[in-house]
Design goal:
Elements: E1 3-5, H1 6-28, H2 35-56, E2 63-65, H3 66-86, H4 99-113, H5 116-121, H6 127-151, H7 158-171, H8 176-179, H9 187-200, H10 205-223, H11 230-242, H12 246-266, H13 277-287, H14 292-297, H15 304-317, H16 321-333, H17 341-344, H18 352-372, H19 374-381, H20 398-406, H21 414-429, H22 434-450, H23 457-476
Antiparallel strand pairs: 1-2
Helix pairs in contact: 1-2, 1-3, 1-13, 1-23, 2-22, 3-4, 3-13, 4-6, 6-10, 7-9, 10-13, 10-15, 10-23, 11-12, 13-23, 15-16, 15-23, 16-18, 18-19, 21-22, 22-23
Length: 482
């Protein structure tokens, strides 16, 4: 039976717990941060701290049987689908019952069940069936998202109204950052919302497209990561043998067969073919998280920077480094708190030209608004409130929980400080790998958001997507990190 690094299981647990926290706070408790979510978030912090410590110590992955991990993952995803089906607050502003969405849930359960025979037998599946099944999951998400927009044409949440008003102001030739009283979105989010409104008539096509694109990027990363290099070594041996004498060739051939047999026997189980759920799970954890349709309904944009990060890593693993740097620059410009990507980008081994593409792309996105109104653009870029850094204690964080119960408020900005420390330590000590970059980014942004004073469901969606991305990178690099 093939194996998987234990770290992948822990990361999938973090993704899953974030989904439960969103379900309990937005779906069950009407936005309140109760005791169970409080302890779940702390447990996620402890898990990430241990994994980050192992990364800095350059510990190799610990492998376990893939059967137990993948079986539990299939069950957990099924529970997600059932919880979404039973969620009475699936959509807050729907004008009708979401019957069609619940029909798609039945299809998702059937698709999840189809993973089990391969998992229990420990054999790979047909490649074509794996592609078709993943495409069906994507189709269900898109059809469900369209249904959300039809059922809830005018949600009362602030994000939908802010995005729509900002785009309409822009299309009428007005600077939305000067014309509107409050708008914390960056120009990159505004561009995405404008494209969505022009192409589909609704700004919520942007978060729906973001979720779909992120899921496909995660699957590419999981499937197209590092591969074992055993075959290249045996090829070199065969070429050398061909140039020797017949007697030497016979002896070398015997040694070659023995070596190949030994390599085959000693090859790490993680490099053997294994069920497709291992490569699909990170994306499915994001797509099937219980409040995904709520994310689309309310037009949250928090996953957009993760989409750009994921696409940047896709380009990076295909050695398209300038493209990777440019996409990472779009992620940097997609949210004010993405500033931590600057020190963490050192882990991707960028050269001078790639650094120029990284920073230059981020600057290009804000240049039109800086020329239009420099003062408004500067105020927007310096605003860290959207990331949970400096605003009042009113969010879904451990600090707000302590404040509500004991009146204890932290001094200063602990989230800002801890994110800076994690980023600096990672840039100094972490290995120069995609996995180190992803895990360090997850640890830094977790510290920034959770130890901040203002964190809402959008921030949990952001962390959910980032944790799923880290799990996908770990799956893709499982061969290299034995």
């Amino acid at each position: 039976m093939p194996t998987l690094p234990r770290e992948i299981g822990w990361l999938l647990i973090v993704v899953y717990v974030f989904g439960l926290v969103m379900l309990m706070t937005v779906g069950l408790h009407d936005g309140s941060f109760a005791e169970i979510p409080f302890f779940l978030v702390l447990a996620c912090g402890a898990l990430l701290a241990v994994q980050f410590g192992r990364l800095l110590a350059k510990r190799s992955f610990q492998h376990d049987s893939a059967r137990a991990t993948l079986t539990l993952t299939a069950i957990a995803l099924t529970v997600f689908v059932v919880a979404t089906f039973a969620d009475a607050r699936l959509l807050l502003d729907a004008e009708k019952t979401p019957r069609f969405i619940r029909i798609t849930h039945a299809g998702q359960v059937v698709l999840l069940a189809s993973y089990l025979p391969s998992i229990l037998r420990g054999v790979p599946e047909r490649r074509l069936w794996g592609e078709v099944r993943f495409a069906l999951f994507a189709l269900f998400l898109v059809l469900g998202g369209i249904s959300v927009m039809l059922l809830s044409p005018r949600p009362h949440g602030g994000a939908f109204g802010a995005h729509t008003e900002a785009v309409q102001a822009l299309l009428h030739g007005e600077n939305p950052y000067r014309a509107l009283p409050v708008n914390g979105d960056t120009p990159t989010v505004l561009y995405a919302s404008a494209l969505a409104l022009l192409a589909g008539g609704d700004v919520r096509w942007a978060p729906l497209a973001t979720l779909v694109a992120t899921g496909f990027a995660l699957r590419i990363i999981a499937r197209r990561g590092a591969r074992p290099r055993i075959s290249s070594r045996s090829t070199v041996g065969d070429a050398t043998t061909a140039k020797a004498s017949p007697a030497a060739n016979a002896a070398a051939s015997l040694r070659s067969r023995t070596t190949r047999n030994s390599v085959s026997e000693l090859r790490p189980p993680s490099s053997l073919p294994f069920p497709g759920l291992a490569e699909d799970a990170p994306a499915l954890m994001l797509w099937l998280t219980p409040k995904a349709y709520f994310f689309v309904e309310q037009s949250y944009s928090d996953v957009l920077p993760v989409a750009f990060i994921a696409l940047a890593l896709v380009a990076h693993l295909h050695e398209r480094r300038y493209l990777a740097a440019a996409l990472l620059g779009l992620a940097l410009s997609a949210k004010q708190s993405m500033i931590w990507l600057v020190p963490l980008a050192t882990l991707l081994g960028f050269g001078l030209g790639e650094w120029a593409a990284f920073v230059g792309t981020a600057l290009l996105t804000v240049t039109p608004f800086a020329v239009w109104d420099y003062r408004s653009a500067a105020a927007l870029l310096m605003n860290l409130h959207a990331g949970g850094g400096l605003s009042s204690i009113d969010g879904m964080t451990p600090t707000s929980w302590f404040y509500e119960r004991y009146g204890l408020a932290p001094r200063g900005a602990p989230g800002l400080f801890m994110a800076a420390v994690v980023s600096a330590v990672a840039a100094w000590l972490a290995p120069r790998t995609r996995y180190a970059f992803s895990l360090s980014a997850l640890a830094a942004f977790f510290a920034f958001c959770v130890l901040g004073r203002s964190m809402f469901v959008g921030s949990y969606f952001f962390l959910t997507a980032l944790a799923a991305l880290t799990a996908a990178v770990a799956v893709g690099e499982r061969f290299e990190l034995v």
